[in-house]
Task: inverse folding
């Protein structure tokens, strides 16, 4: 049996219009506990179970041996909310506000496409459940735990609270007293569930504690996958200096709004989306971007600005430029826009002068972008700045101009002519080497313009751009329009969008097209061309139907493609203007309310693996930074069964989680593989327990932890072997990677071995990323952040290999997002 749990904390949008049938006041008492049980119409045994658990909760102090939990205020939490009076197995019967919330997550679409069953929990209770008929016929039970108590009372009573008792710890006691929702799964003997069962848990209200109770029983020989779920990655967002992938944007970063002004990101959001994804292809195909259907883009309807003339070529009916200039763009959901409608491309409007960058240096930097490089001369052990030009007289003149600029600034350089007739300029000037690296970078695929250049007045930027064109550009005449087109190509993805933005600031819209990587022959040599980004524009005419108004360009949509999508999507809230630019085009931001108070997640998971059963429980969580994540998870493994916990924890204010396996009978095995990443203000206190109660049992524990920017990770584990449990084999390995002197990592391994005939091993290591590793990778063309990501992903490779492919991709992205702060 396999259970997969993915990030149910990060559905950060809130439904501000949600209506509650019942919403308790904050605070906890025995009366509240009894009231919860009465509202649920529970049997007497469950009411007694709850009230006894509440007494344990009151008596037990908040534990002080781990992370700091002193700031949790149990009287400031709401313990029960009911959003609807009824559960349903018909999606259309749900209240509009609940259905809309989960439609955003794509649950109905996911159910149709890939899930054996779906369960939805909203606040304290499950509101929707569906299970495919084939599974019902096989005897599989999948429902919320509340329903299971009513429909399968004997089965629930037999197992409920038997793996984790109410008096196990303070937070298990709290969960046992106020639990609501969660999943109950029973898989009969020999039944193998072919597709996943999935549950979604959703907290909408501020200060709403979540206390789901999950009970999974895998009978002998059964197999099941259980997924507990809580603008796609890589789309480029403009911040006026460069273009960053949307998943790398953090709270406090600056972005450019639809008004062309720099605004601050107030909050970031991400959630899993299963459903339709739209690819919007504007006239400039290289500016295509993907976006969900509900997300609004700034747009002008074509039908509102058309002329009376008939359409020509493959375009829709022509538009009136006069009408287009008068039209007021509006934010419209993507699923409502059409081919031929006009998107709004915005040019940033802020400027800042630079004393360092005079006209001569801008000319040289333009030529460096096109023809320059910095390399290390091994013979004399010095960096050298080189410019490589062609054979023509114009190329020789450019080489002479570069040398003239170098010498004019008091530095040395030289021109040589190769045997093939090509001109090369070389200089060992540290001044100009540093100038080029600072403002343009190095390596053809990683050259980008500096913040200082991107903030220069538009006319100053154009000096650099014209000299870049002299080095890398060419001119051709379009046959249809007889217009003169200027074109240049680069293999740097970020650079091409920066150049497009500079042209826009100078009143020129340019098209970007992409030429796929290919093999070619140059001067008799076979080469492999990288993917190229081709920028083209005309200075004397409009490009197609594109029209300019102030710092805006109205760009027609050539095509809209709708595809199914399964993965993470990202968004953020932006101050004042509530918008940002994706590859230059204006889209609306997320307007969900942001709650500042800390939240508490105290779940309990009980797993029973009967004889010969296999349970694999995968968790990948990236909690928001205001969550105390305090979870008790435990499995009982019987004869020859195999239990695996594959557990990753990122985000959260504090996590305390120690998945445990009690090896109850001979032949039982367990494997625990965990990863924890702690960033600024976070403490990941995680680990595991392997308790050997029978002979011939084995356990493997592997822990990987990463901490940076003052974050703290703690491994806390226990291996216990009871007297008489002979031939036990257990191995533990703890590896930690620490990034700076402000971060901290600790290891607290406990071993209680009461049987001599056992083999126990423990290894631990702590390491730092070395300068030599970074230098080696950066010398191969990687940026510092890319090099760090590669090292980190290698460090946790064993964990990634255990994930299903779709989770591995998302996990790698989450790691990269969390590592953004590692450089600087």
Result:
């Amino acid at each position: 049996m396999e259970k997969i749990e993915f990030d149910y904390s990060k559905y950060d949008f809130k439904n501000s219009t949600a209506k509650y049938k019942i919403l308790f006041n904050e605070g906890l008492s025995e009366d509240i506990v009894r009231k919860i049980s009465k509202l649920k119409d529970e049997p007497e045994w469950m009411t007694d179970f709850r009230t006894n658990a509440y007494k344990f909760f009151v008596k037990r102090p908040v534990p002080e041996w781990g992370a700091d939990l002193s700031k949790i205020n149990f009287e400031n939490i709401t313990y029960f909310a009911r959003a609807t009076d009824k559960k349903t197995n018909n999606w259309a019967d749900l209240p509009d506000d609940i259905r809309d919330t989960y439609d955003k997550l794509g649950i109905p679409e996911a159910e149709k496409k890939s899930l054996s069953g779906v369960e939805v929990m909203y606040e304290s209770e499950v509101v929707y459940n569906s299970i495919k008929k084939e599974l019902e016929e096989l005897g599989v039970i999948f429902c919320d735990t509340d329903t299971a108590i009513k429909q399968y009372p004997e089965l629930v009573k037999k197992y409920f609270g038997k793996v984790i008792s109410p008096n196990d710890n303070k937070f298990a006691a709290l969960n046992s007293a106020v639990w609501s929702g969660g999943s109950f799964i029973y898989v009969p003997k020999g039944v193998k569930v072919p597709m996943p069962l999935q549950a979604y848990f959703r907290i909408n209200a501020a200060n709403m504690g979540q206390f789901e109770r999950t009970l999974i029983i895998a009978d002998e020989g059964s197999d099941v996958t259980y997924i507990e779920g809580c603008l796609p990655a890589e789309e480029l967002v403009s911040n006026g200096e460069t273009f960053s992938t949307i998943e790398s944007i953090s709270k406090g970063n600056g972005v450019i709004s639809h008004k062309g002004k720099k605004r601050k990101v107030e909050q970031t959001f991400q959630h899993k989306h299963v459903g339709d994804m739209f690819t919007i292809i504007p006239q400039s195909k290289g500016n295509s971007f993907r976006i969900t259907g509900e997300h609004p883009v700034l747009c002008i309807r074509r039908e509102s600005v058309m002329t009376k003339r008939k359409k020509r070529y493959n375009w829709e009916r022509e538009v009136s430029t006069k009408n287009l200039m008068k039209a007021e763009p509006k934010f419209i959901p993507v699923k409502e826009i059409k081919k031929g409608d006009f998107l709004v491309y915005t040019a940033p409007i802020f400027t800042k002068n630079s004393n360092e960058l005079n006209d001569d240096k801008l000319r040289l930097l333009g030529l460096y972008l096109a023809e320059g490089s910095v390399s290390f001369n091994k013979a004399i052990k010095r960096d050298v700045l080189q410019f490589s030009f062609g054979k023509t007289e114009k190329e020789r003149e450019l080489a002479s101009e570069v040398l003239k600029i170098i010498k004019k600034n008091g530095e040395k350089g030289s021109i040589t002519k190769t045997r093939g007739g090509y001109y090369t300029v070389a200089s060992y000037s540290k001044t100009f080497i540093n100038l080029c690296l600072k403002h343009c970078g190095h390596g053809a695929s990683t050259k980008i313009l500096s913040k200082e250049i991107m903030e220069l007045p538009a006319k100053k930027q154009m000096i650099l751009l014209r000299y870049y064109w002299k080095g890398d550009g060419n001119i051709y005449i379009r046959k249809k329009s007889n217009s003169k087109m200027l074109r240049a190509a680069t293999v740097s993805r970020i650079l091409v969008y920066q150049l497009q933005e500079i042209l826009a600031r100078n009143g020129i819209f340019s098209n970007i097209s992409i030429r796929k990587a290919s093999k070619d022959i140059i001067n008799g040599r076979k080469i492999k061309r990288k993917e190229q980004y081709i920028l083209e524009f005309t200075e004397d005419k409009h490009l197609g139907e594109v029209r300019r108004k102030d710092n805006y360009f109205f760009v027609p949509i050539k095509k809209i493609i709708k595809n199914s999508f399964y993965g993470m999507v990202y968004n953020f809230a932006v101050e004042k203007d509530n918008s940002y630019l994706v590859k230059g085009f204006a889209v609306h931001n997320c307007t969900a309310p942001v709650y500042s108070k800390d939240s508490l997640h105290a779940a309990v998971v009980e797993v029973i693996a009967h004889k010969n059963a296999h349970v694999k429980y995968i968790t990948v969580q990236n909690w928001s930074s205001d969550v105390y994540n305090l979870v008790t998870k435990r499995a009982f493994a019987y004869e020859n069964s195999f239990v695996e916990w594959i557990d990753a924890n990122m985000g959260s204010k504090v996590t305390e989680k120690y998945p445990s396996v009690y090896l109850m009978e001979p032949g039982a095995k367990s494997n625990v593989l965990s990863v924890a990443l702690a960033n600024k203000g976070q403490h990941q206190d995680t680990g595991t327990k392997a308790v050997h109660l029978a002979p011939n049992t084995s356990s493997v524990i592997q822990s990987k932890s990463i901490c940076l920017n003052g974050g703290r990770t703690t491994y806390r584990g226990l291996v216990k072997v009871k007297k008489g449990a002979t031939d036990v084999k257990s191995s533990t390995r703890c590896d930690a990677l620490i990034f700076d002197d402000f971060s901290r990592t600790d290891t607290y391994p406990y071993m209680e071995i009461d049987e001599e005939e056992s083999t126990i091993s423990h290894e631990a290591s702590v390491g730092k990323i070395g300068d030599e590793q970074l230098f080696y990778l950066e010398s191969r063309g990687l940026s510092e952040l890319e090099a760090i990501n590669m090292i980190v992903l290698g460090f946790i490779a064993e964990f990634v290999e255990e994930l299903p492919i779709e989770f591995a991709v998302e996990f790698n992205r989450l790691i990269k997002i969390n590592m953004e702060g590692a450089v600087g």
Remarks:
- The chain has three domains: 101-232+599-818, 233-341+545-588, 359-536.
